[in-house]
What we know:
mainly alpha
Amino acid sequence: MEALIPNxxxxxxxxxxxxxxxxxxxxxxxxxxxxxPEIVAATLTRLWxxxxxxxxxxxxxxxxxxxxxxxxxxFRDCFNTEELVALERxxxxxxxxxxxxxxxxxxxxxxxxxxxxxxLIDHAKYVLSELDPDPEWLxxxxxxxxxxxxxxxxxxxxxxxxxxx
Length: 165
């Protein structure tokens, strides 16, 4: 993978693969075939707020992440100013919609097919286009993610895309 994206920072890869997965209709359909929607939704939500978006201070399931200043600096160094603004806006947009994705009473999360969910996907598509990933690289990563989904290893690939190859 190093040959595909030379010197690519890991945080940038994780953000691009996450947004690509979230916005891919093919990936969402694969999710519906190979995993329970509430598990996928909960996994993606936790990954974004607790691992992918490093500067996050959002509380999920009463776990309060405390971003390390060095980790935040490393994360910010992977993006230019415009990209950081787009990511911060997406994060805030996602955070405002958490109540549509989680159900504290039943301990489940799901991706509803409603305007809020479609707006979240549209916003993710916009951010992904701002990050301008290599389309062939992203396609190959998403194909590998679908394979991981079939084997129950979705989280591993989103946490560390380099493990996909």
